[in-house]
Amino acid sequence: MCESDEGMVFTEADLKGAEAFVVAALCDDEYLFNLMQTGGNVHTYTATEIIWPGLTKEEVEKDKKRCKILGVETESKYYQAKKTRHSGNYLIGPYTLGMDLKIPTAEAEMLLQNFYDRSPKLAEWHSEVEMTMRRNQNVLITPMGRRRQFFGRPGPDLLKEAVAFIPQSTVSDVLNTGLIRVYNELCAVYKCINIILQVHDSILIQHPPEMTMFVYDMMKKLMKVNLEIKDRKFYIPIELKTGANWRDMK
What is the CA 170 to chain-centroid distance, rounded? Predict the structure, then answer.
C-alpha cells in the first residue's frame, strides 16, 4: 500500500471515464455523451441498460461493494461491464475478454453480443475509421493534432490498432497537458506540493492536508483541457479523491 509522507496527504485527480467519453463523442452517441457530461457513470449504465437490462443501479452498487469486501472486485457486474465496454469499443474478441474476466469464452461472447446489439453507433464509428484509413493512406489525426501513420497489412488487427489510437492518444495528451500545468502552476510555485505518479488517466500528488481545498480548485482548473470532436466542444470531467494512502482515498 502506497502511503503519503508523515504530515501529508495524497490527492488523486482522475479523468472520469476518459476513453469512453471520447469514444461517445467520436460515435456521435448523443445519449451516452450527455449522460457522461452530466456526471453519469458510464459503467453502471453499461451494466444496467446495455448488458443486463433490468438490473438496477442499486443492485450493481451492492454487488460491487460485496465483491470489494470479499477481495474479488474483478467478479463484480460493474467490473465486467467496464471491461466489456472497453473490449467492444476497441474490437477485442471474446477469447481475450474471457481471459481478462476469467470466464468461459462463450460467456464473454454473450457479453460482447449484448453490448454490440445495443450500441449501434459503435459499428458506424468503426466503419468510419476503416474508411478514413483507406482514404488517407492509413493516416489518422487526433483532436489534439497528433498524427500517426499505420503500417501493416489491412485487416482486423490493423483496424484494432486504428480504433484504439484516437481515444487512447487523446486521453494521454489531455492528461499530459494537465500534468505540465500542474507542475508549472502548483509544484513549481508551492514546494510542499509534489507530483508522485501519473497512472493511465490520473495524476497523484502529495500536499499538506490544510491545502486540500486549494489543491482541489487548482486541479479542476489546470486539468480542464478543451476538446472539439464532431462540432462538440467539451472537456473530460475531473474526479478528485484525497487520503493518507493510495488505497483508501475518498
Answer: 11
pLDDT per residue as tens digits for the range 72-123:
999 999 999 999 999 999 999 999 999 999 999 999 999 999 999 999 999 9
Gap between the Cα atoms of 121 and 15, Å rounded: 23
Residue indicated by cell numbers 500517426: 148
Q: What is the mean pLDDT of residues 173-195?
A: 96
CB 227 within 8 A of CB 236: yes
pLDDT, mean of residues 62-70: 93
Q: Which residues touch 100 (CB under 8 Å, ≥6 apart)?
A: 83, 87
From the number of C-beta atoms within 10 Å of its C-beta (0-12, 13-18, 19+), residue 40 rates as middle
Of 167, 193, 156, the C-alpha closest to 11 is 193
